[in-house]
Every structure is written in structure tokens, then in C-alpha cells.
Amino acid sequence: MLVAHFHRFANNPEHAVQSLFKYLLPLLLLTLLCELTFGQKAKKSPRKFKIGDEIEYLWVNKWLPGTVLGAEGNFVAIEYEWGGSMRQETVDANKVRFAWEAKAITPMRTWNDEKKQFSIRAAALGFKQDSVRLYKEDGTEITVPIAKLSESDRKFLDRVRAQAGPPIAELPELDDFAKNPNSISTAWNEAENLSAVAPDAPPAFAQVPMSGVGFAKAHFFETLTHVHPIGGGDGWIVAGTIDGQSQLPSRVIWASLKTSTVKRMQLLPAGERLSAVDPRSRQVLTVNKEGPRLTLWSADPNTEQPIAKRSWISVSDDKWGSWNNWTAIVAPNRVLHEWGKQQFVVWDTEANREVYRIDQESFFSARPTLSPANRYIALPEDKRVRIIEAANGKTLASLPVEGGSAAGVGFNAQGTQLAVLTRSQLAIWTLGSADGPERFRADSVGTPFSADVEWVDDHSLLIDRETLYDTQLELPVWNYKAKVFEVQSDSWGEKTQSVLGDKLCYAVTVGSSNEKAFVVGAVELPGPRVREAVASLDPESLYIIKPGHAVRTEVQCGEYNQEVQAALEQQIRENGWVLDNSASTVMKAEMGRSETQTVKYKSTSGAGEMSVTITPYFSRLQITVNNEVAWQTGSGSGAPHVMFLQSGESAQAKANEMQKPYPGLFAQANIPEKIFDPKKKNGIGSSLISSQGLTPQ
Fold first, then answer.
1. pLDDT digits (tens, 9 = 90+) for 57-102
2. What is the sign, positive or negative, of the torsion defined by CA atoms of 658, 659, 660, 664?
3. Which of 125, 154, 271, 537 has an alpha carbon 20 to 30 Å from 351's alpha carbon atom?
4. Radius of gyration (Cα) for the chain, nearest Å?
């Protein structure tokens, strides 16, 4: 039945999009019945505890270390640590295990050689090539070649190996990577075009089919934190999970979208968070928040166990720590890491040293992006977009931005074009061309903050995975909403959604509260009914204000009232609107001061912290229709993210100089002559992203 459904997907693409995941549920239920466990099974054999034994006590869903104070029948008196203090309690013996059991794959038993000249009581901890590691009753460990054991012991180990699942990969010793505080690249090209930047096409295998793969949660606290589509003949998609309690192993799932099966599961030590995958060099990268520590592994779906190559601490000099887990493998021996707020570093994993670092000049930390083959970093900043050669840090171009600061950037699937989004504009640059960009009005999707910008096709872009923007119409045409508590969302470096080619790749959680599973998959964008709806769209129907529209003004700018009124009337004339004091559409201009605030700065020279107290000025312009905001802009003096002081200069004095009123906003505001109906700002329709794929609402 399941096979028949997948054949139907191939014959009916729209049905496949709408019903992508629901036919996986019978498979998931079977998988859940075989739910993976680590270490010992939940039902444990009776143990003989004695005073002084080191144990672990199962409290709710977490094992807490402790010591046995006494034992009688099926009850054990224990002392254990909870909440920073020691507690004493008598508990059911089934909730207590020996400390060594946490890492054992068999119970304590007697092992012999074939002639029974060798005999030892121990528990198996794991396998090491052709040997087994044993934990003896006296607390010591030994490694015994499996070939030296009796035939019955060897058969027992064969069954254990089959049931235990893959071995847990081992972390290597920490490497000492050399920092270079002066490694900020001096190679700088002020080119304001992309003539020196060749296209960077993805590998030919970077395509995934429309399908889904389900696998059971290993335990209650497991969460899925990374989904990485690769493509290839199997349509690979890689998922990474982590135990939220940092007690149980992390998992790397290699799923084939072509066959809708998990073809390989690999285990990593607890706390290791998958953060990057590079199929060409057959490497994966993990981040552990302790440090933070980065570890580079050799891994692919054909290997049983990832092999660690390098492990090192990556933290910025100012001790802010990793701002999030955003990383990339930009070359076989180059790793990019966001190691501080608006700070990035690239490490050489062969020479164990820092190659270069980047300080981003972006107030709202707009997200950088990589070209399809990871050759370039596009770094959005307040006044420009820097194109940096990822392997060596050379700045190849410094693209000017218009319509506000750069909020988001995105390369198209072919690596031939770069989109730059600001508050009011979308600019599309062509790699390898000396021409300037093609600019599109985008105040409907623009933002002064930070946004994801991903291409769907040659004239459609997905903004923040919510709004489909059409460059031919210069309009938002469709909206997407993820089903709450089902669709996994990106957060603090977790990457669970992305666009690869024309596919939206994402993950969902399905099942009952006690039997949950993950499903990872890909659906075709823009989804059912969207293209048909856009083809029949009358663009004029989306505007609520057009030339000839009547507006009135309200000005509350104190001593600047006359200047601001004149600026607004000039804007009205230029837009072809009509000034009418009885109109329901209002242009409201305000100026004033915000609440007093204290801002702390941390000196980079080690001089400690300094504080400044400011009362910022603000300027604000709103256009309302029937009391609903249709368009707005504003500015404020505030405090800068970074303050550069000359010798003897006071931070407070410099901050005071920056606090000035700004009536010029109202003359310089780029108010479009046509303004969207707020009710239609997200387009003419919407689709729900869920376990059912993309469903038009």
C-alpha cells in the first residue's frame, strides 16, 4: 500500500505536495515499536547493592549520581545530589542502577576462553575494532580480543552488536589552535560591482526529490537541531539530533529521499550538535556549547562511525562566547564559525591556526550567506555588502546599498546572481558583470532588521520563509505559515529549514505524546495553486493608495512644525496625491524624545566597562487609512553599537553629540506613490507548512 502511494506521487505532483508526509505514518508506527534505546533497557534485573556502591538514581527522566547507604528487599537507601545539595531517600531498587551501567551494553556476566582457562566477571562497555572492552567488578577496564573468547561468548557478542546499534564515536584530545588578533584581512577591493567575482555554481548533485523520511525519537528529551539537504543519487538529507539533558548520545541520520528510508544512523558523544555537512570532502562539523568546542569529523553514509579529525575551542577574544552555532566548512581544511556577536573566524584545520577574522558592521546582525559552492561569503552590513573569498578572507567587492541598511542577502541556485534586501528595495546583482544591480521596489517585504532571502526561481524569492516576492510584479504574492508545535524552526544557529533549488526542506514532529517521531523531507515551491493565482492577479487590486488619493496631514514636531509641513506637502505633490483636510487617510509626523536610558560599553583595550546616559530623539512618519497603518518610517538618535574614542575623549560627551533632532527625515523619506492595502500586504493567498506538505488555505 505504501509503495502504491509513492507511485501515485510520481504521477500526480500536486497530490504529492499536499500529502507528502501522511502516508509515512504506518511506517513510523512500526518504527516507534522498535524505538531506539541507549545503554540498558528500561526493565532491569534485580541487583545486589551494598553500602558504598556508586549508583545512579532515576529522578523523573534524568539519572542523578549517588551512593548506597543500605539495601533491604526491593528498597535501597541512597544519598544523591539534587539542586546543589545532598539528599537522603529510600527508593525502589528498580530506579537505581550501578554507575558503570550507564556506559555498559551488557549486564555483569562471566566470560571464558574456549578451554575455560581464562574466566572473568565483567560487563561489556563496547567494541574496539576486533576486541571488546570489559568493565570488571573491581572497577578496572580491560580490552580482550574477541577471537580469544569461547564460542558461546562470541555468539553472545554477535547478538549484542546487532541489538546495540552503532558504536558511539569518540572525541579526540583538544588541539591547541593558534589565534592571531591581527589576522583581519588587509586585502581589500573597493569595487562597487561584481566584475571580479566569478559565478559559483553548486555541484551537479545538489538536487533533492520531493519526498519524506520518518524516524522515531530515541527518547523524551531528544530534539532535532539540524537538517541539511545534499542530493545525489539517493536524494540525501542529513538530520542531526541532540539530547536536551546532555546525557545521551547525539545522532546523525542519513536519510534517502529517493527510497524514503533511513540508510545510516551514527552516534556522537552527548552534547555534540551537528552544525555543518560538506559532502564533497565527506566531513561533518559539530559544536559543543562547552567552550564552545568545534569538532571536525570524517563521515558519510557508508561509514558506521564518524572519525574525529580535529577538536578545538573557538571563542572570540572579548570572551562574549559563541553568539550562536552558525558554522560552515568552506574548504576541506577551512571552517567558518560565528564566534561572537557580529564576529566571525575562519580556522585552518590542517595548520591548527586562525586564518582570518571578520567584524561585521551591522547594527541588527543581518545574516551572512554562502554562495552555492561555499566559495564566497556575502556579508550584509549597514552601508554595504562585502563579498569575501571564504578560503583566504580577501574582500573582492564592496557593494553599495540603497533604501536603508542591508537586511538580508541570498545567492540564486546557480550561483550567478545575488539578491540584497533593504528596508524599501531589493537589488539583484549579477556575478561576473560590471553592471550595476537591477533594483525593485520592496517596501512590502523590506525590513530594517534581519531577514532570510532565498530564491525559488528566476523571478521569485522567499523572504523569511514567510512571503513569496515576485520581481516581475514587484509585489508580495503569497504567504506561508508553519504549523505551530509541529514544524521545527531555526533558532540560535539551529538550521532545520532551507531552500535547495526549488525545494523547501524542513522537519516536523508527529505522533502521540508518548510515541513521537521526526519526519524530514522536501516539498516543491511555490506549492499548489500559487502559480495559477499569481497569473490571474490584478496588481492594482493590492494598492489602497494611488495617485489622485485624498490625504490630510497631522504634524506634531514642535519648533519644526512649519518645516515638516512643507516637506509633507511636497511629498504629496510629487506622488500625485490630493491634500484634503477632511480625508480619512492621514500623514502623521511626530518628533520628540524617548525615555532616558543607560548604555554600557565594554572596552576592547581591557580598560573595563563605561556607561553613558542618553535621552534619544525620534522622528516618526505614519500613513494611516481608516486608522490602520498602511506605511511608516522613522529614525532615532540612540546609542551606536560600537563607539570609537580618540585619546582623552569622553564616551558621555560623544554620546551627547549624537543626540540631535532630525526633521530631515520627512523630506528624505522615500514614500511610494502607491501603497499596499495592509490586509493584502502578504499577497493574495497563503499555504500552511505542515506534515501534510504545503496546503493552500
1. 988 767 889 999 999 888 999 999 887 789 999 999 988 988 888 7
2. positive
3. 271
4. 30
